[in-house]
Amino acid sequence: MSGYQVNVGSALDAKVYGAAVFAGVQQQKSFMNLLSGEAPKIGDAASKLKGQSSPDMPIVKIMDLTSKSGDRVSVDLFNIFSGKPVMGDKRIEGKGMTATTSSADIYINRSRGMADTGGKMTQQRTVHNLRTIIQAGLEGWAGRLEDQRCLIQLAGARGYQATADWVVPVSTDPDFSEIVVNTVQAPTYNRRFFAMYTGTGVTPPTSIAGMTNAGALTLSEIDAIGSLLFESNVPLQNIKLKDDEYEWNEPLYVMFVTERQWAILKKVSGALWQSALSTAIKRFDGTKRHPLFMGDSIMWNGILVKKLSRYAIRFPGGSTMMENNATSTAESAVTVPSTTSGFSVDRAFIIGAQALIKAYGKEGSQGSNIFAWNEELVDHKSAVEISLAMTEGTAKTRFTINGQITDHGVAVIDSYAPAVGTTEFNSIVTASAGKY
């Protein structure tokens, strides 16, 4: 009896492969999936306004549009009440506290990628199952695309790194705006820091134009910037992980740094590095260990610092980046200094809860599947083209909080980060050693 066979291009084949690709992308140990949680509900908002705990992760997934028509979804923020109480028998009429809210819209769009399996002679010459290989390749491509969209939106910039892993092109590419779906917004002024807060005679700049080679990222910089951020008028909401026994007393935040920033941190930290490693291990150990704590990470000043593998939001000397100033959200292009031959700026970011919204739509031709697989016979049925389509969109949450436009759950730190092993790198390591 012959085995069951599904013809190329059949509806059943498309549904099975579409679901398999979606499951694979969602299960990858990717940047996006480590930080993802369910969309908050009304009860979560009410709990937060009452000061109670609610399960919050940095990336919130919204699936509403998988069952409804539309190309955007709106999310709302309700601000806390902060008015004075009315005491004794004083009249309360006319003294009501205003319930202030703001909202943000996230758009979705369709993204597709296609692979050609070659003609019949290509199949004849290979012992591999090209369909399986191409499915895995497209799955990896889709995962990188989702990761990069999340990273770019959180960082508020694409940067100029152009390694083979990058799917999203640099911002000067004519297709960039369409590929990122939602407008990439530069960090708000109150969420923007430069690694020049410590050291003798060092004054932190208010623009990247003031960055110098004294601005390396060190543990003392994380101390200073973390304290400024957490004591600000609009502090980040902390991340809440299941089974985190320390959350009630030691709020958790996550900071992602580039390979270069990580190398500098490790070089200049000395004996404190081992202490920071031990603190990270202690926070989640044994059977309770969360995937976020796996791999290289340190814990410093309540911030879990992790290395962002493969990717970097990087600006070489002489390039431009977009900035907001203190009084306006109108962005302007600012040139990155080029004081040395290897001058380069890398962007780290500190993430709290509900920093990013990830919205999914449906592929209409395949019911509620989010990822759709399609095969077409071409060239008089001598070759097969395989495509993957997905409908989604990503945007960081930005609201008006206490009258100030604010990136709700993320802050960025720009630092001087020359290539590892160069003269500039060795110089900055030597110069920063006293700053731990």
SSE arrangement:
Blueprint: H1 11-27, H2 31-34, E1 36-38, H3 42-49, E2 59-62, E3 72-78, E4 101-107, E5 109-119, H4 120-125, H5 130-155, H6 176-180, E6 192-194, H7 219-230, E7 253-257, H8 259-269, H9 272-283, E8 297-300, E9 303-307, E10 314-316, E11 320-325, E12 328-335, E13 344-351, E14 356-360, E15 371-378, E16 383-396, E17 398-401, E18 404-407, E19 410-416, H10 423-432
Parallel strand pairs: 1-2, 2-14, 6-19, 7-9
Antiparallel strand pairs: 3-4, 5-16, 7-13, 8-9, 10-13, 11-12, 13-19, 14-16, 15-16, 17-18
Q: What's the number of helices? A: 10
Strand content: 25-35%
Q: Assign an overall shape.
A: globular
Report the radius of gyration as a whole number of Å. 24 Å
- Kindly report how far apart the N and C termini lie: 72 Å
* Low-confidence residue ranges: 1-6
Could you state the order of secondary-structure elements as H and E? HHEHEEEEHHHEHEHHEEEEEEEEEEEEH
State the share of residues found in helices, binned by percent. 25-40%
**Strand-pairing-aware structural class:** alpha+beta
**DSSP E strands, number:** 19
Biggest pleated sheet: 7 strands, mixed
Task: State mean pLDDT (0 to 100 scale).
Answer: 81
Oligomer description:
single chain
